[in-house]
Amino acid sequence: MVATEHNIRDVGTLPLSKELEARSGKKEPVLTIYQFCNSTIARRMADFSPAMSAYMPCRVSLVERPDGLYLYTLNMDMMVKMGRKLPSPLNEEAWRNFGGNGCAGTQRRRCAVRRRSIKGSAAPSSSR
C-alpha cells in the first residue's frame, strides 16, 4: 500500500451512511470518511504552526452520488502553503507525502476540495 511506504497510518473510519441506516432502517447512499496520518510529520507541522492541526488527520471521503462513487480530499497544496513558508526539510517531506499528487489526486487546482471518480476519470472540483 502506498500509504505505508510514506509512514501514513489508517487512524480511523467513520461509516456515516451505515450509522444513518441503523437509525432509520432505510438504505442510505454511501458516505464514509477515512482518516490517515503520518504522526511524525503531523507533530512537526503542529509545532511549526498550531493552525495546521485543524487539517489533521488527512481525510478522504467516499460519497455516492446518482452518477457514481467519488473520492473527496482537502486540497493539501493549500495546507502545505498556508501561512509562513515551511522550513527545510519539513517542506520537502510535506510535499512528498501530502502535496501535489499525495492525498490530493492527480490535478493541481486552486480550490478547497478535490473530487475524483472511483472509476478513475477526473470529476470537476468544487470549492465547498
TrEMBL record:
Sequence ranges assigned to domain DUF302 in this UniProt record: 16-73
Pfam family, one: DUF302
InterPro entries registered for this protein in UniProt: DUF302, TT1751-like_sf
CDD domains for this protein: DUF302
Full protein name: DUF302 domain-containing protein
Organism from which the protein derives: Tepidimonas aquatica
